């Protein structure tokens, strides 16, 4: 059984089709990197996985739970799928530590002591032990995004969804975030990453998917796809991002 | 003319009694108005048509009529319509709760609306039900955003209690009026009444400022 299964999944906003019926399976331990021009439906596709967007047709199953199930089912999926946003979305009224403790306490109903232990370990893992009592506004973008990754991990997800995690960052801050993601991938975390970082796709991705106008156009091994780009549109796209 | 301090001192016990009633009505109105404001504000922001419409109607009705008319309605018209008896103090408190609730609702709606949507999504993406997100993610931010406007509303509420002299509630302004009618010391009595209001409201404003500073984010 795959970790994520798109079964004729489609999505439209009114008359505007954002995702044409898609069949796609993402396996456990895969690092699927999704690229494509803006407006191609990458983010929408990602957000359908944890039900932040409701699908319009077909089915989408995460760890064999359908996003079309009850509100409870959708919450179970969200507990299993951690999400990292382009804009970090850290809670501004909480310190880094409190942000990471939030999920264990509220979503996993763990004690404060347990949550503190988890948060301390995760902040250490993302290299922010020195910054754990800082508020988001006192952290750089790269640090905020690393806290956001730790916050998502603290809920103990089985897979992680990244929605353009470095797009809001200055180039010199991107590497620290990508490094954390690479570590995560090397530990066997299942990851779906929407990004423009072709270098990351090549180094870390186990699979590269190219989307255009709501369709999954290419699906292959990153190294092969990047050395011999299949199709003219993908070649054009590569030239634009590089 | 000479300022007759003796008149002020003689009036003080009565005025302070009036102040007690003013504070009682204000505190009850404040507490009830906050509860009602939260309910209506949440309904306005997140409700379906069935809850938004009544909430909008309520706010429009209260904002569209003077508070004097509202208290007259509660004290004189409502008892006839519903065949009940109602005391002046009860009418005053009910009016204040309903009145300030409507203004609070609009303030709270604005504050809730202003919380970045991404924070809500971050909470939901952790698998939390919306009510938990509302309580633990949205509310702490909205509370800070609402505070200055709510403070303003609280100050108005304290002053609005003086309106209840029209239904004979013996609050501070009414007491002042009664004393003045007996001794004709208008300057002394209204000065004293004004200063008492000023002191109470300054204290409230100070408390609000301290609270705002304490919850301010870095």
UniProtKB/TrEMBL annotation, chain A:
Which CDD domains does this chain map to?
ABC_HisP_GlnQ (cd03262)
Domain ABC transporter, which positions? 4-238
Q: List, in alphabetical order, the Gene Ontology terms for molecular function in this entry.
A: ABC-type amino acid transporter activity; ATP binding; ATP hydrolysis activity
Asked whether the UniProt record includes Transport among its keywords, one would answer yes
Q: InterPro entries per the record?
A: AAA+_ATPase, ABC_ATPase_HisP-typ, ABC_transporter-like_ATP-bd, ABC_transporter-like_CS, MetN_ABC_transporter-like, P-loop_NTPase
Give the matching SMART domains. Answer: AAA (SM00382)
Task: Offer one Pfam family short name for this entry.
Answer: ABC_tran
Could you tell me which Gene3D superfamilies the record lists for this protein? P-loop containing nucleotide triphosphate hydrolases
Which keywords appear in this protein's UniProt record, sorted alphabetically?
ATP-binding, Cell inner membrane, Cell membrane, Membrane, Nucleotide-binding, Transport
Out of the domains of life, which is the source?
Answer: Bacteria
Q: Which family does it belong to?
A: Belongs to the ABC transporter superfamily.
Spell out the protein name for this chain: Glutamate transport ATP-binding protein
At the highest ranks, the source species' classification is:
Bacteria, Pseudomonadati, Pseudomonadota, Betaproteobacteria, Burkholderiales
């Amino acid at each position: 059984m795959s970790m994520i299964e798109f079964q004729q999944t489609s999505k439209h906003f009114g008359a505007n089709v954002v995702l044409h019926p898609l069949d796609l399976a993402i396996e456990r331990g895969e690092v699927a990197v999704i690229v494509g021009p803006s407006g191609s439906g990458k983010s929408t596709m990602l957000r359908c996985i944890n039900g932040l967007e409701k699908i319009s047709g077909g089915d989408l199953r995460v760890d064999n739970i359908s996003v079309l199930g009850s509100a409870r089912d959708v919450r179970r999926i969200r507990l299993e799928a951690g999400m990292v946003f382009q804009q970090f979305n850290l809670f501004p009224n909480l310190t880094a530590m409190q942000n990471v403790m939030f999920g264990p306490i509220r979503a996993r109903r763990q004690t404060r002591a347990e949550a503190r232990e988890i948060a301390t370990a995760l902040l250490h893992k993302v290299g922010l032990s020195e910054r754990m009592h800082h508020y988001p506004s006192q952290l750089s973008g790269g640090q905020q995004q690393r806290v956001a990754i730790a916050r998502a991990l603290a809920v103990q997800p089985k897979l992680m969804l990244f929605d353009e995690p470095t797009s809001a960052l200055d180039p010199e801050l991107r590497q620290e975030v990508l490094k954390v993601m690479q570590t995560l991938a090397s530990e066997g975390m299942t990851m779906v990453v929407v990004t423009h970082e072709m270098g990351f796709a090549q180094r870390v991705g186990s699979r590269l998917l190219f989307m255009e106008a709501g369709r999954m156009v290419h699906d292959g091994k990153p190294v092969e796809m990047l050395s011999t780009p299949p199709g003219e549109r993908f070649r054009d796209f590569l030239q634009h991002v590089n | 003319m000479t300022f007759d301090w003796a008149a002020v001192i003689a009036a003080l016990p009565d005025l302070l009694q009036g102040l007690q009633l003013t504070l009682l009505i204000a505190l009850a109105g404040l507490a009830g108005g906050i509860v009602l404001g939260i309910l209506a504000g949440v309904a306005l922001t997140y409700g379906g048509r069935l809850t938004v419409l009544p909430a909008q109607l309520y706010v429009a009705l209260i904002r569209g009529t003077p508070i004097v008319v509202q208290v007259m309605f509660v004290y004189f018209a409502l008892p006839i319509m519903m065949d009940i008896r109602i005391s002046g103090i009860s009418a005053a408190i009910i009016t204040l709760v309903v009145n300030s609730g409507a203004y609070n609702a609009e303030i709270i709606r604005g504050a809730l609306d202003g919380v970045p949507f991404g924070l809500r999504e971050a909470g939901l993406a952790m698998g939390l039900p919306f009510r938990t997100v509302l309580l633990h993610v949205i509310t702490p931010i909205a509370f800070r955003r609402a505070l200055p406007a709510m403070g303003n509303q609280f100050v108005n509420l304290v002053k609005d209690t003086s309106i209840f002299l029209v239904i004979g509630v013996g609050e501070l302004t009414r007491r002042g009026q009664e004393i003045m009618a007996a001794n004709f010391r208008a300057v002394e009595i209204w000065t004293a009444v004004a200063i008492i209001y000023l002191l109470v409201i300054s204290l409230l404003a100070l408390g609000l400022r301290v609270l705002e500073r304490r919850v301010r984010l870095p």
